[in-house]
Amino acid sequence: MTITTMFTKTLLIYFIVFLLSDYAYGQRDKKFFRTDYNYIETTQGFYKIHTLQQTWADAKRVCALEGASLFYAENRDEANAVISWWKTVQPNVAWAFVGISDIITESVFETIDGRLVSEVYNQWQRGEPNDLNGDEDCVHLNLSGDLNDYRCDGESYFICKKSLASLEWDSHCNMPKSGYTFSEDLSKCYKLHTTPLNWMDAHTVCRTEQTYLAMVSNQLEAEYLANVTESASSRRIEGDYVKGIFHAGFHNRLHENWQTVRGTPIPSDASLWWDNHVPTEDDREQCGSMFYTGSLNIVNCATKSLFICEREVVTLAKRRSLLTIGLQQVSPQRTVLCVSHTSDSRDPH
Ligand SMILES: [Ca+2]
Ligand SMILES: [Ca+2]
Predict the structure, then answer these.
(1) Whose CA is closest to 218, among 258, 183, 268?
(2) pTM summary value
(3) Which residue of 164, 189, 265, 330 lies most exposed, with the fewest beta carbons within 10 A?
(4) Fold observed for domain 175-312
């Protein structure tokens, strides 16, 4: 066996290990959740401080949309570790909502997952909790490590947390598991959202999930999305919203003519559009929608409807074919370059 053959075989083993390790173990071994979360080794958790102030309920909802939950410290060690990190990354944030409240029953402070505050980190500020004006049910934490009960409708910074142990990776969609369905034909993952929202809020939800409002780019995708929407129409979701349409990933909100949410031109194929009408600057509405049939249309942005989020993925089959091409066509050194390139999009660091 020549040195070159041995080297090639070694590389081949490396490729297989690379493919399998990524596929079978996901990102837990890589200690990666999302690019906007920091991992703290001593607590085995991922954290994010939100610097846009929200009510407690919205803070809780945003953390959930990110695939995490509103943080509370399990114990003093975790409180110390998080506060120490907080001081280095956001020292100007003095208070942050945490996942503890007495909303259900006055004076019974519980975590968002139903544990009594006595079971977790519970160092109250002196004289707290005091339920000031009978109107303080939500808890926030300060940089000194003290808790205080505060108005739930007051706006505050907040911290989200995802424990490493709870991280489940969706290998097909290459993202934390969050209810997305993979379509191999389209190399995309889709999720139907059945809480009706206006177009802007729907866009926000997809972006928070690190995806985009779904956009039809060809006939195959139109048919696929029509099938997805069929499941919604058969479920007869109640609520005050426009039935029969979904928000779609295009708009004219910048008044720079119609574009997709990725900033690319909308498809010009008239057959994709309802009544063969490709929207123009003259159209009064400014947001994109899609009929349950999959054909595209435009809508008033304030209209509430269901929506679908999407994410493009580099499929395992595609990666395999890239690797095969790499192995067949080039020298070992160049093959390594090819692998590095294909793995770029997955590597958090
Ligand atoms: Ca209270
Ligand atoms: Ca208080």
Answers:
(1) 268
(2) 0.81
(3) 265
(4) Mannose-Binding Protein A; Chain A (3.10.100)
Tell me the CA–centroid distance for residue 150 and ligand 2, in Å. 5
Q: How far apart are CA 289 and CA 268, in angstroms?
A: 16
Q: Which ligand is the nearest neighbour of the Cα of 146?
A: 2
Q: Which of the following CATH numbers is that of domain 38-165: 2.170.130.10, 3.10.100.10, 3.40.50.720, 3.90.780.10?
A: 3.10.100.10
Dist. CA 129 → ligand 2 center (Å):
5
